[in-house]
């Protein structure tokens, strides 16, 4: 039986993760870098890069094999002919949105920024607001109008109940 890890977009095998402590224990797999099709995903790799180099959106990586992960991810960037990110590309403008919904495009970044501000206005911490907005946009397959409707509906009810 193939061991899989459940994520928002489905189940993923061990090969989709940059850091793997124990291949039989999905809870020890960290920093997903491949999409459901098994291809390197630039948004996921960008999020992994940022997590390895800073406290990216409250999601910094401080787990095992960090130096090895940085080296491997650098090799992946080179093999994909992607430019190695500079600090400015992963500090405040990247949300790690998957390529299937347009990645971290200026349009998606603008929507995310507005959504995060709206959710934070209801008392949520920034990292939680980002997670809420990102997961909603992914669940609606990038449909911003539908995602905004869901966010607005939830803000008038359950999201405003706590932090």
Write the layout of secondary structure elements.
Layout: E1 4-7, E2 10-13, E3 17-20, E4 29-32, H1 42-53, H2 66-79, H3 87-90, H4 106-120, H5 126-139, H6 144-155
Antiparallel strand pairs: 1-2, 3-4
Short characterization:
The protein has 163 residues and is mostly helical.
The dominant shape is globular
Using the CA coordinates, give the radius of gyration.
16 Å
Number of domains: 2
Detail the poorly predicted runs.
Answer: 159-163
SS-based class: mainly alpha
Mean pLDDT: 84
Q: The biggest beta sheet, please?
A: 2 strands, antiparallel
Going across the biggest sheet, name each strand in turn: 1-2
Topology, number of strands? 4
Query: Secondary-structure element order, as H and E?
Result: EEEEHHHHHH
Estimate percent helicity. Answer: 40-55%
Strand content: 5-15%
First-last Cα distance: 39 Å
Number of helices: 6
């Amino acid at each position: 039986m193939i061991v899989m890890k459940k994520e928002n977009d489905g189940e993923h095998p061990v090969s989709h993760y940059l850091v793997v402590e124990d291949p039989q224990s999905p809870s020890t797999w960290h920093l997903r870098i491949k999409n459901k099709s098994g291809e390197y995903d630039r948004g996921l790799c960008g999020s992994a890069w940022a997590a390895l180099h800073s406290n990216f959106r409250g999601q910094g990586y401080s787990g095992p094999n960090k130096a090895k992960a940085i080296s491997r991810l650098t090799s992946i960037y080179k093999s994909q002919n992607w430019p190695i990110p500079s600090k400015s590309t992963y500090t405040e403008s990247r949300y790690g949105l998957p390529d299937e919904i347009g990645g971290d495009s200026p349009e998606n970044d603008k929507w995310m920024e507005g959504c995060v501000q709206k959710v934070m206005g209801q008392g949520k911490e920034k990292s939680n607001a980002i997670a809420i907005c990102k997961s909603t946009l992914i669940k609606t397959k990038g449909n911003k109008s539908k995602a905004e409707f869901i966010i607005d509906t939830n803000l008038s009810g359950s999201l405003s109940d706590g932090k």
